[in-house]
Design a protein that fits this description.
Blueprint (H helix, E strand, L loop, with lengths): L2 H21 L15 H40 L4 H11 L7 H20 L2 H32 L7 H21 L4 H5 L1 H25 L14 H10 L13 E2 L9 E4 L3 E6 L4 E6 H11 L10 H10 L2 H19 L5 H6 L3 H8 L3 H10 L1 H15 L1 E12 L2 E4 L4 E6 L2 E6 L5 E7 L5 E7 L6 E6 L4 E2 L4 E4 L3 E11 L6 E2 L4 E5 L5 E6 L5 E8 L4 E8 L2 E8 L4 E2 L4 E3 L7 E9 L12 E3 L4 E3 L5 E10 L5
Parallel strand pairs: 5-12, 5-13, 14-21, 14-22
Antiparallel strand pairs: 1-2, 2-3, 3-4, 5-6, 5-9, 7-8, 7-10, 10-11, 14-15, 14-18, 16-17, 16-19, 19-20, 23-26, 24-25
Helix pairs in contact: 1-5, 1-6, 2-5, 2-8, 3-4, 5-6, 6-8, 10-11, 12-14, 12-15, 15-16
């Protein structure tokens, strides 16, 4: 918003403020309570003076604009490259028809210097500012006139005071403009009649202001009960209202206030409170100053305008609490963030289909939002309803993934179930693996999560809901282990040749350490086991008979693995068996002895060059269990 726009609006506000102060000034009250015998004459005089001043102002503005145009025209010619054109101007303006060309050039040089001084002093800027002030004054005059005509219809007994304040404001603007123009050097020489016209317009305003100010004094009074016999209805209402917490209030300390111009009644301000008097019914109400002014200002921001009656204003002001205003501003921050999506809670609003409601309030400026929440019951209830819904829910979204063959991919149609504070909520992931879940609950509540999909291991976890909205709550499922079949034979190597072992217990163990399956070998010593195992993992199969055991391993590739044989040594205590014995013969220095004869008492052999000989087969008896 530009400076002039802000100034124009401020001046208009001041005009209307001053107007209302007079519309309900004590001594000239609403026709419901008082009569004003001077009304007709005062109204006619005021209206005539107002129209005369407006005419004078318009003429002054026209003259000033004419000067600005002529000034620019002269400056262009003076500094023109066309010397003949410049000389002709100098002859005409300075009456130098008989001067020589040298004299004219010298004069032209002086004029250029004067223009340079005026430009350096900011004449053009100040001239533009003065014209702008006149434009603002004219705008205010138009608005004041509209307010004046409205006042004549709404409350004619007070319309006469309206132009007085408008004139005062406009007069101040013009006087300020004139003072700035006077600071420009040589302005008297250059402005000539235009400056005088400007001054005449200003003087006309000042004169009208003086006359109307004098007339206004006839209608002004002091405090509410300064003059006995006047303001009797307002005084009676004051006495009636001065009870309870307001007992002891003195009407001598209450003076007319111009702070509440839109009030449909009269306002008197005391030290801590207002006394608001309603001509309709002639009732009065005390109202705390700060709260009254705050509610009054908010009233102009209501989305559904309503009459500004004294009783309504007083009731709202007396019931205003700081905690309510604090809550209203917190709500504004919430709604603004939800609307512009800087608050992730907009996802909850979207899920609840409340976008339209939130947009309506989120687009408002802070004071308008606060005003309608606090002093309009309809909007208060609507906002509270939205907040109540919003506060009931938390929200989570994310993506379900799976690791397959070392690659990460999204999983569609996965079931996502979150139990929060004992209440289950579930949804299904979409084609891109993404899910969204709206849940009744509060941040910090305990949660249990279960995510499952066909062909994958179920994911479970628990904890707490970290915040109201959780984005990126992703889950990764492991591939469900396939059924893998292992088969083989258990042999006893203590037998020659080795023999299959029947009745041996065979157990399969996966990499997780879990024993997934077990079986007993048949008469032929064979076994077949089926276990859950992931591709490329290792499964260990262990066979045991009594205290003897043995094992073998198999890497999971495909659906089955055969030939995974297990060898046990089941030699029994005291059992004789044949075996070959390898013997190494060494000397005292541990050197191998070649050609040495080794015998078991029946058979004998000779060591080779490396000192080693093999003796057997020989029959031995196992005494290891003794």
């Amino acid at each position: 918003m530009s400076y002039t726009t802000r100034l124009s609006r401020l001046l208009l506000l001041l005009t209307v403020t001053a107007l209302s102060a007079m519309l309900f000034s004590p001594g000239v009250a609403n026709a419901d309570c008082f009569e004003d015998e001077e009304y007709a004459e005062a109204l006619k005089q005021t209206e005539d003076q107002w129209q005369a001043v407006r005419t004078s102002m318009k003429e002054g503005k026209a003259e000033l604009e004419s000067f600005a145009k002529k000034y620019q025209e002269y400056e262009d010619i003076v500094f023109s490259q066309d010397m003949e054109k410049s000389i002709r101007l100098a002859k005409r303006v300075f009456s130098m028809e008989d001067a020589t060309e040298q004299q004219l050039k010298q004069k032209l040089s002086q004029v250029r210097a004067q223009f340079n001084k005026m430009d350096a002093a900011g004449l053009k800027t100040k001239l533009a500012s003065a014209i702008e002030k006149l434009r603002i004054a004219d705008t205010i005059a138009f608005e004041v006139n509209n307010a004046y005509q409205f006042a004549k219809k709404f409350d004619p007994a007070h319309a006469k005071d309206n132009p007085t304040y408008g004139l005062k404001l406009i007069g101040n603007i013009l006087t300020d403009g004139a003072k700035k123009m006077e600071t420009v050097p040589l302005v008297g020489q250059i402005l000539g009649p235009w400056m005088r016209a400007y001054g005449d317009a200003t003087q006309a305003f000042v004169g009208a202001l003086d006359r109307l100010t004098k007339k206004m004094k006839d209608f002004r009074q002091g405090s509410l009960c300064t003059h006995f016999g006047t303001n009797t209805d307002a005084m009676g209402a004051f006495e009636e209202a001065a009870t309870g917490q307001y007992a002891g209030e003195d009407c001598l300390t209450y003076f007319p206030s111009s702070r509440l111009p839109r009030l449909r009644g009269m306002a008197y301000q005391g030290q801590d409170n207002y006394f608001l008097f309603s001509p309709v019914g002639c009732r009065g109400y005390f109202s705390p100053t700060g709260s009254t002014e705050k509610v009054y200002d908010w009233h102009s921001l209501l989305l559904e305008p309503r009459a500004l009656d004294p009783d309504w204003l007083a009731n709202r002001a007396r019931s205003l609490k700081s905690e309510v205003e604090k809550r209203a501003r917190e709500y504004y921050t919430l709604f603004s963030g939800l609307y512009n999506r800087s608050n992730n809670g907009w996802l909850i609003i979207e899920a609840l289909a409340l976008e339209g409601e939130v947009e309506f309030y989120g687009k408002l400026d802070e004071e308008t939002f606060v005003a309608n929440y606090i002093i309009d019951d309809t909007h208060h209830n609507r906002i509270e309803g939205i907040v109540e819904q919003y506060n009931k829910y938390v929200y989570a979204e994310g993506t379900v993934y799976a690791n397959e063959g070392g690659e990460k991919k999204t999983v569609s149609n996965a079931s996502v179930s979150i139990t929060i504070a004992g209440r289950p909520f579930s949804t299904t992931s979409g084609g891109n693996g993404q899910y969204q879940l709206l849940m009744e609950g509060q941040p910090g509540a305990s949660v249990e999560i279960e995510v499952s999909a066909d062909g994958y291991e179920t994911y479970t976890t628990d904890g707490g809901m970290p915040s109201k909205v959780v984005l990126g709550m992703n889950f990764t499922l492991g591939s469900e282990a396939a059924l893998f079949t292992i088969s083989g034979t258990v042999f006893d190597k203590s037998k020659t040749p080795v023999e299959p072992v029947s009745g041996a217990t065979v157990t399969a163990t996966t990499v997780s350490g879990e024993q997934d399956a077990s079986v007993v070998t048949g008469a032929d010593g064979t076994y077949t086991l089926s276990v859950q195992a992931e591709e490329n993992t290792t499964v260990t199969v262990t066979a045991s008979v009594d205290q003897t055991s043995g094992s073998a391993t198999a890497v999971v590739t495909g659906a089955a693995k055969s030939g995974v044989d297990i060898v046990l040594d089941l030699t029994e205590e005291g059992e004789a068996k044949e075996m070959t014995i390898a013997v190494t013969v060494v000397d005292a220095n541990q050197g191998n002895i070649a050609g040495a004869v080794v015998t078991d008492g029946t058979n004998s052999v000779t060591t080779g060059a490396n000192g080693i000989a093999s003796l057997g087969p020989v029959t031995v008896v196992d005494h290891s269990q003794e």
